[in-house]
Write a structure and sequence with these properties.
The chain is built from four helices and 17 strands. With about 250 residues, it is an alpha+beta fold. The chain starts with 6 loop residues before the first helix and ends in a 6-residue tail after the last strand. It binds magnesium ion.
């Protein structure tokens, strides 16, 4: 069931979203050769706690950290580790969120570790741009398929793989709510977009196949061909008048 939020609830999500965005920014700013993904996770955790939020990924279905940190061929759900030390040229996807007063934010971005290859930069740029293609279709009166189609078509036309076995989702009183928000679809099909819907839209895009598999730790999701992936995500609210509102914007 899709839960529509009131103006007051969206106000609370704006607060949770701002802390989520600030934590993502702080974590991303720490990405550099020599730092471990555990240390980055600590930065995110402390940021959220210091700003009055709760890390909402921590212990979610048993996930052991504040952030999912996914390096290179890891698409999503990488587990931060002291043993994983970043190297020049890596690309690092960080996905995290904060809960404040019962409402959730969720956002992600892929960061460059030092100098990265042109192909890796293009993957990152394309994935970020595809998120904004999707956001442009997140308007009242449209359909869920408009969003997925915009993202998927943009990436596939440029030769990238669009992960299908994981999707975006509704978000608000829970971290994951209905509806699922796929990164593919048919324009004019799917759930009707209504004012008060709050969605996490999150393209997961690869340089090769869209096929992924989960490692034996039960979380780490990698491309089956070992090619690299990028991931961008915003939490947004569908508004009554035109463009969606991005709720995961850092305060400055
Ligand atoms: Mg999400």
């Amino acid at each position: 069931m899709v839960v529509l939020k009131t103006r007051k609830e969206i106000e609370k999500m704006r607060v949770a979203g701002a802390i989520s965005a600030g934590a993502l920014k702080a974590a991303g700013a720490a990405v550099e050769p020599g730092i471990s993904t555990y240390e980055i996770d600590e930065i995110a955790r402390k940021y959220i706690l210091c700003h009055g939020g709760k890390p909402n990924f921590l212990h979610y279905n048993g996930f052991p950290a504040t952030a999912c940190i996914s390096v290179n061929e890891v698409v999503i759900h990488g587990i931060p580790s002291r043993k994983q030390v970043l190297r020049e040229g890596d690309i690092v996807s960080i996905d995290l969120g904060a809960e404040v007063d019962g409402y959730h934010g969720d956002n992600a971005a892929t960061f460059a570790c030092g100098r990265i290859s042109d192909q890796a930069q293009k993957l990152i740029d394309t994935t970020r741009a595809s998120l904004y293609e999707g956001l442009a279709k997140a308007v009242a009166g449209g359909r869920l398929g408009d969003i997925g189609s915009a993202i998927g078509t943009y990436c596939e036309e440029r030769g990238y793989g669009v992960v299908r076995s994981f999707t975006g989702h509704g978000v608000g009183r829970a971290l994951h709510e209905d509806p699922a928000v796929p990164n593919y679809g048919t324009p004019g099909h799917g759930v009707r977009l209504l004012p008060g819907m709050t969605l996490a839209i999150e393209p997961m895009i690869t340089m090769g196949t869209h096929q992924v598999r989960i490692l034996p730790d039960g979380w780490t999701t990698v491309t089956t061909d070992g090619k690299w992936a990028a991931h961008f995500e915003h939490t947004v609210a569908i508004t009554a008048d035109g463009a969606c509102e991005i709720l995961t914007l850092a305060e400055d």
